[in-house]
Specification:
Blueprint (H helix, E strand, L loop, with lengths): L4 E5 L4 H11 L3 E6 L10 E4 L1 H9 L3 H7 L5 E6 L4 E5 L5 H5 L4 E4 H14 L3 E4 L3 E6 L4 E5 L3 E5 L1 E4 L6 H9 L8 E13 L9 E6 L3 E7 L4 E9 L16 H11 L5 H9 L4 E7 L13 E3 L14 H14 L11 H7 L4 H31 L4 H15 L2 H9 L10
Parallel strand pairs: 1-2, 1-11, 2-7, 4-13, 11-17
Antiparallel strand pairs: 3-6, 4-5, 8-9, 9-10, 12-15, 12-16, 13-14, 14-15
Helix pairs in contact: 1-5, 1-9, 2-9, 9-11
The chain binds flavin-adenine dinucleotide (FAD) and 2-acetamido-2-deoxy-beta-D-glucopyranose (3 copies).
């Protein structure tokens, strides 16, 4: 008997990780990606211990760590570079949580994930854009652009913040959801050669100004990823995109004047980055757990709980989702005693047996993190002298309580399983 086909929509972070897990459990995953050819993707990601543990299960953690340098320090300063606080807590992550935190280029992650699928003979179909879903009692058909369709046992929506899978699931529950919610903040980002002044330590650095925040972390031995966050209205949304080479000089000019008087290391990075990309930061209202799934479909990652990036947990939580969903699905080893029994679980009651407990486990945690990220963004980009003074003082105070800092990470990073 041929193994059940799993339709995985999206080859971002969650899609390929699930492709790996399902293949190894004896299923037949097919990963559909709307982009004609995967590769060049945005700026960077901070992979934390929780996400790296999952990437280690698919065999990629070591390769990604070798590309970059694990984080040793948190470092926060005022705009001019006057230190508000620093901590070497990240240098203990590997011992405490079995993996460090490490910044990586998104393109690197994207290429390695796709190659991993090809190496294990998983069917990856680029240039397939999901447009509709039809569910039956114990099967599901996905419809793609160009009049194509594929039927499988069940479907996992890993198609990100603008997920079509989510829109269809909600539509079938009688809910019409608008576009993602703009959080009022934009980021302008680049990757630059690491300035001399930042080379000493591999640190996640934050600089705080009035209405502006800058973050940076290394994504390789010689390169640093940086992003400038500002409060902006949506009026100029059409200008939020990767800039063409001929537009970069003007963007450098604008950023340099915005950041006049800031730490020279920042200006140096702005002045020398390979590319500059600008985007708005969006999230969505939370869904209830029962809105994460239908009879034959379940949402994972940003499709279920898109977040603004201020806690650096979007991709890491997507990977926790993958672990838990995969963990709750039965192994299908032909010839083994439980094969038939396990297949039964994929039958008519799949949503109650598997999807519902998955959603009930994951929704509360991700909901808190989405709200936390939004609050964190608002706090970081404080405006006005008094608000900025208060923020800077709060940050400095937080560093005086290492036990509280540690407790925060202790609630976040030991997941999704407590061993190596
Ligand atoms: C500026 C920024 C910085 C971030 N920094 C971090 C960070 O430091 N750490 C962190 O953990 N997270 C970070 N995140 C969040 C992280 O990028 C996301 O949470 C993560 O990528 C979610 O993974 P995913 O697989 O759910 O979705 P995605 O990675 O968005 O993948 C979705 C995929 O589905 C495809 N797709 C979409 N629609 C369709 C369709 N109809 N048919 C077929 N395919 C489709 C897309 O092309 C894409 O490849 C950041 C996000 C932003 C915006
Ligand atoms: C980083 O820079 C050093 C010194 O300039 C060089 O020897 C090394 O090859 C560089 N590494 C990478 C990955 O570019
Ligand atoms: C930015 O680059 C220009 C020329 O490339 C140089 O003249 C200027 O001093 C640089 N500014 C900073 C802050 O590095
Ligand atoms: C479906 O699964 C749920 C949860 O395991 C269980 O409570 C319920 O009785 C099952 N329904 C049927 C018809 O088997």
């Amino acid at each position: 008997m041929s193994p059940p086909v799993v339709l995985i929509i999206g080859c971002g972070i969650a899609g390929p990780v699930l492709g790996n897990f399902f293949k190894r459990k004896g299923y037949h995953p097919i990963v559909f990606e709307k982009v004609p050819e995967l590769g060049d993707a945005g700026a960077s990601l901070m992979l934390m211990s929780n996400g790296l543990k999952v990437l280690n299960l698919v065999g990629l953690a070591d390769a990604l760590k070798t590309e970059s340098t694990p984080l040793q320090e948190f470092w926060d300063a005022s705009q001019s570079g006057k230190v508000l606080g620093r901590s070497d807590l990240p240098s203990t992550f590997n011992d405490r949580y079995y993996q460090p935190a490490v910044g990586v280029r998104r393109t690197t992650v994207s290429i390695k994930l796709k190659q991993m699928l090809l190496d294990m003979d998983v069917d990856v179909r680029e240039g397939w854009e999901l447009i509709d879903i039809q569910e039956n009692e114990d099967s599901v058909t996905a419809f793609f652009d160009g009049g194509r369709s594929v039927t499988g046992s069940f479907l996992v929506g890993c198609d990100g913040i603008k997920a079509v899978s989510r829109r269809i699931l909600l539509r079938n529950q009688g809910i019409s959801e608008g576009p993602p919610t703009y959080t009022g903040l934009t980021q302008t980002a680049g990757i630059s050669e690491t300035p001399e002044a930042l080379r000493q330590t591999s640190a996640m650095r934050n600089w705080y100004g009035d209405g502006v925040h800058v973050i940076s972390y290394p994504v390789g031995p010689n390169h640093t990823s940086w992003a400038v966050t500002q409060r902006e209205t949506k009026e100029k949304e059409e200008t939020w995109r990767p800039y063409r080479p001929d537009e970069i000089p003007e963007q450098r000019q604008q950023l340099s004047s915005l950041l006049k008087g800031w730490d020279p290391a920042i200006l140096q990075m702005v002045n020398s980055s390979e590319r500059i990309i600008k985007f708005g930061l969006f999230d969505r209202e939370e869904l209830k757990p029962e809105q994460w799934y239908s009879r034959r479909c379940v949402l994972v990652g940003d499709a279920a709980h898109p977040t603004s990036p201020h806690l650096g947990q979007g991709a890491n939580q997507a990977m926790e989702d993958c672990f838990h969903l995969s963990h709750s699905m039965p192994f299908l080893v032909p010839g083994s005693g439980q094969y038939e029994e396990n297949l039964q679980i994929l039958g008519k009651n799949l949503s109650q047996e598997i999807f519902r407990p998955f959603a009930e486990k994951r929704q509360p945690r991700t909901s808190l993190l989405v709200k936390g990220a939004r609050t964190q963004g608002d706090k970081r980009v404080a405006s006005g002298v008094e608000a900025c003074r208060q923020r800077d003082s709060d940050i400095a105070t937080a560093y005086t309580d290492p036990a509280a800092m540690l407790a925060r990470f202790d609630s976040l990073l030991p997941e999704p399983f407590q061993t190596l």
